Amino acid sequence: MRIATYIDRVLDVSPSSTPAAPRWELYRVLSEPIRLRLLALAADEELAVGELAELLGESQPNISRHASALKQAGLLAMRRQGTRTLLQLPDAAARDPVVDDALHSGRALCDADGSRARVALVVRARDAAGREFFARPAESSVARPSAELGAYVRMLSPLLPRTGVALDAGTGDGGLLDVLCPAYARVVAVDRSEAQLARARERVALRGFGNVTFAHGELEGPEVRAALPRGEGADAVFAARLLHHAPKPAQVVLALADLCRVGGSVVVLDYAHHDDEAMREQADLWLGFRPAELKGFARAAGLVDARVETVPVVLNGKGPDAHLGWQIMVAEKRAATRHENPRPPTPVAGRDTGTTRRKAMSHG
Predict the structure, then answer these.
(1) pLDDT tens across 157-187, in order?
(2) Domain 149-361 CATH assignment equals 3.90.1170.50
(3) pLDDT score recorded for residue 5
(4) Residues of the chain with pLDDT under 50
(5) Would 288 disulfide with which of 71, 212, 271, 312, CB 3.0-4.6 Å?
(6) 3-117 with 149-361: one CATH topology?
């Protein structure tokens, strides 16, 4: 029997699963050390059955069996991502005094065997495939856009509230720069892969854009912050098809919010939730997201008025992901986050004045 099939039968993740057991059942359910350890790890991080099996040195069927007992008692929340089952301790369960005591014991056991310290390594391992995928050398594939694209975008730019600085997070080969460069006075293109940045630089050179600053590094890194106006963020932060590659998508949205100025917007383009496991060959960690998940990421990052819209499939291009549903989330930043200090917006120069602006637009 395939492991995935076994897990599906043991772990019922449907909404109609058996309700939580009476509280007195908690003492019986929590009497086994492996369940205490499992619960402690699931309280620290949402983890897949396979990841928990690796951390605890157990087989996946054994982890599934113990997780099923914890779920029946209302101590684990489960959700499906394709063939993977992800487990996490619900916030409400953690507030129970019996569960809280069990978590202290479980954490002590996990600290003693080192499994809790290895959680960060397991999460980081999710990222390894993506890094390898995007670091592969490839022949130049920079396609030429419509000859009039820059002019068309320039027509739309007067409708934007602020067109000073845009940030393209995870720029890849720079496809989005064809749109951002004609619309904004300056664009910061960020990627952690030098191979991808090389393709983006080739694109920029081919187009003749003179208003792009490249930053090689992580979104939270000093290289990105240094590329932005001193003490401020970007007027708009864009992340096109980035979240599904991230080990922690919510953390990425938080980083995007930090890079956005107060009064600016964060714009995310990513896949709707799907079940195409073949996309993992494209280094996809997550099989898309539901609108409620994207809005939850925005809310946790301190963004407001998040709205999600569907992209017509005819606009998806012809790539390996063209058959998927695409969606766009737009959210606003109205307060400073983390290390930022609220500052009044810097006036943007007139749309038809400024040497840099004219130079950038002349190549549209």
Answers:
(1) 888 889 999 999 999 999 999 999 999 999 9
(2) no
(3) 42
(4) 1-10, 13-19, 339, 341-364
(5) 271
(6) no
Instruction: Provide the whole-model pTM.
Output: 0.69
Which residue is associated with the tokens 């929340």?
77
Q: Are strands 84-88 and 77-81 parallel, antiparallel or unpaired?
A: antiparallel
* Alpha-carbon span 218 to 169, nearest angstrom: 9
Q: Which two tokens stand for residue 301?
A: 């990052």
Q: Are 107 and 40 in contact (CB under 8 A)?
A: yes
Q: What is the pLDDT of residue 9?
A: 45
Q: Which residues pair with 227 in a beta bridge?
A: none
Give pLDDT, residue 300: 96
Q: Answer whether 178's CB lies under 8 Å from 228's CB.
A: no
Q: Which two tokens stand for residue 21?
A: 């057991």
pLDDT of residue 344: 40
Q: Would strands 234-240 and 260-271 be described as parallel, antiparallel, or unpaired?
A: parallel
Q: What architecture is domain 3-117?
A: Orthogonal Bundle (1.10)
